[in-house]
Amino acid sequence: MSIYQKFCREQFDERGNLIKFEIDSPADFNFGYDVVDEIASAEPRKRALVWCNTENEERVFSFADIKKYSNQAANVLASSGIKKGDRVLVMLKRHYEYWFVAVALHKLGAVMIPATHMLTVKDIEYRIRVSEAKAIVCTPQNDVPKNVRKALDNAGREALLWCVQSDAEGFRNLTREMESAGGELARIPTLASDPMLMYFTSGTTGEPKGVIHDFTYPLAHVVTAKYWQQAEEDGLHFTVAETGWAKASWGKIYGQWLVGSAVMVYDFDNFEPKQLTNIINRYGVTSFCAPPTVYRYLVRKGVPDMPKLRHASTAGEKLASEVFRRFTERTGIPLCEGYGQTETTLLMGNFKGCDSVEGSMGRISPMYNIELLGKNGEKVPRGEIGEVVVVPPENSKQVGIFCGYLDNSKQYDYVWRGGVYHTGDAAWQDENGLYWFHGRFDDIIKTGGFRVGPYEIENVLTEHPAVAECSVIGVPDTLRGQAIKAVVLLGEGYSPTKELEKEIKDFCNAKLAEYKWVRIVEFVEEMPKTISGKIKKTELRHRADE
After folding, report:
1. Domain count along the chain
2. How far apart are CA 405 and CA 408, in angstroms?
3. Contact 470, 510 (CB under 8 A)
4. For residue 517, what is the domain's CATH number?
5. Would you say residue 69 lies in a domain?
6. Is residue 236 within 8 Å of 260, Cβ to Cβ?
7. Which helix (H) or strand (E) covers residue 223, if one does?
8. Which of 215, 247, 277 is the last residue of a domain?
9. The pTM is what?
């Protein structure tokens, strides 16, 4: 029996497929005490974390280890004044210390703010200022300590500072201080409704927003791990994500440990497809999750045999049909797409027991009641585009949906208008009950009386060998209202020419309905992106209007 079953109720159909999932957690549920420490007590040697890096160093941590090291980290932090409700910025890349610090902060009742080491000084300054972080724990690498100090100076603020592994000017060494700290920790009272975690959105349409989740959030990721990623009891799950992104919460700690799977962590800076597949084979990874970009590289380089891998999933952007087909043909494993947001857990997915359908977001998670609504709040019929909204249980809080935006109750009330959570994403449902992503409502192009989602056109564009990256937007057109424009970053060995522009147009338009035809192609040397790598369509539209 996996520990998640203490807090969750499942209902299955006659074929054994999950049809209902409910969470019933105690009022004081805390992942640190009620999951990590409980597993450590029952199965102290159970594998929790397998870590390696590009220098061929490796460490394997049991749940007893995680309990001990998280207690030591908690005692160091608490002795310096970190307490329940304090906000702590954590920038630890893929270092194994992240798992000690995360669990330690949960046990203390502090609010962890994960952030990527790639943030600029300005980015760090913004997060420090708006979050009023009391402490920062960071990597000593990539000039992060220097950038943190400069950001604090710019913001006119002070904070408790720690780094790990080695010394850095102005920082205490958490690794060294943990060595002399006690390995026991008396339970600190927390509530399941207390804030536990805060992620900043990528800021594609404005300043990043602080998204706050409470202590029930880990439980909502059981469905993510068990029924979408198909992490297994005593298996080894590998999600390719840095700990600064919400995807790390989806695939590197909560749901996986709750269902009894260890997590694989590869600590690297520069992505190399061959290295990833070597890790999968060397350590016997059983389930794997990565963004489409990773699968694109794997397919281009030639997917090697991965005999122990049993499941693969993907999310975050549109997956090209060619990548889906070639990966599945080579491995025999279908890529299972999923859909969710920083504000949520997994909302839809190609779940265990259901055939994965290329390009589809799959079906609604059994944990949620989701509808597609039109602009006046009416339900749209199958085949028509509507906004994805989450309808919470009557007189009950929806577990897994964020509990607030930092200092922005107006925006929170707006996305919860009408008593439902508005995702802002457009989708449609086919005759088989499967859902298909159509784009952000802000991104939908209205051309010649038709509504066109940019993602389906981008999917075709990426199949052209000259296209390294692309983004599709609508631009003013006197005849059609909007014309479809493709902004293209060319791959190595290609140069912008009128002939190539025509070739790309003809290539795409031969595969698209006429109302979806690309009318304009613009070649660029660089795409405007957020720190998370998402293309800023808003900026592209502004450029087009100038």
Report:
1. 2
2. 5
3. no
4. 3.30.300.30
5. yes
6. no
7. helix 222-223
8. 215
9. 0.86
| 261 within 8 A of 285, measured Cβ to Cβ | no
Cα–Cα distance measured from residue 219 to residue 365, given in angstroms and rounded to the nearest whole number? 14
Contact between 25 and 16 under an 8 Å Cβ cutoff? The reply is no
Q: Which amino acid is at 354?
A: C
- List, in order, residues 6 or more apart from 41 with CB less than 8 Å away: none
pLDDT in tens, 5-38: 999 999 999 988 999 999 999 999 999 999 999 9
Q: Is the dihedral of CA 104, 108, 109, 113 positive or negative?
A: negative
Distance, CA of 226 to chain centre: 16
247 in Cβ contact with 232 (< 8 Å): no
Write the CA distances from 284 to 96, 234, 235, 288, 372, integer angstroms.
Answer: 19, 11, 9, 11, 40
Q: Which DSSP string corresponds to 116-179? A: -TT--HHHHHHHHHHHT-SEEEE-SSTTHHHHHHHHHHHHT---EEEESSS-BTTBEEHHHHHH
For residue 105, the domain's CATH number is 3.40.50.12780
Asked whether residue 38 is domain-assigned, the answer is no
Give the strand pairing for 135-138 and 111-114. Answer: unpaired
Tens digits of residue pLDDT in 484-538: 999 999 998 999 999 999 999 999 999 887 878 999 999 999 998 877 677 888 7
Query: Which residue type is seen at 70?
Result: S
Q: What single letter denotes the amino acid at residue 208?
A: P
Give the tokens for residue 304.
């090697």
Out of 215, 247, 268, pick the residue that ends a domain.
Answer: 215
Q: Where residue 165 falls among pLDDT bands split at 50, 70, 90?
A: very high
Are 174 and 164 within 8 A, CB to CB?
yes
User: How many CA atoms does the CB half-sphere of 382 hold within 13 Å?
Assistant: 7
Mean pLDDT (the chain) is 92
Q: What are phi and psi of 464, to 5 degrees?
A: -75, 130
Angle value at C-alpha 179, between 175 and 183, nearest 5 degrees: 115
Query: With 80 as the cut, is the pLDDT of residue 393 above it?
Result: yes
Structure-token pair, residue 47: 């594998």
List strand residue ranges (DSSP E) for 165-305, in order: 172-173, 195-200, 210-214, 236-239, 262-267, 287-289
187 within some domain: yes
Question: Rounded to an integer, what distance in angstroms lies between the CA atom of residue 193 and that of residue 156?
Answer: 32
The predicted-structure confidence for 228-272, as pLDDT tens digits, reads as follows 999 999 999 999 999 999 999 999 999 999 999 999 999 999 888
Encode pLDDT of 282-325 as tens digits. 999 999 999 887 888 888 888 888 999 999 999 877 777 788 88
Domain assignment present for 537: yes
Instruction: Cite the DSSP H helix spans in 375-445.
Output: 409-415
- Domain range holding 162? 61-215
The CA distance from 371 to 422, in Å, is 10
Report whether 325 contacts 358 (CB < 8 A): yes
**How deeply is 20 buried, as exposed, middle or buried, from its count of CB atoms within 10 A (0-12, 13-18, 19+)?**
exposed
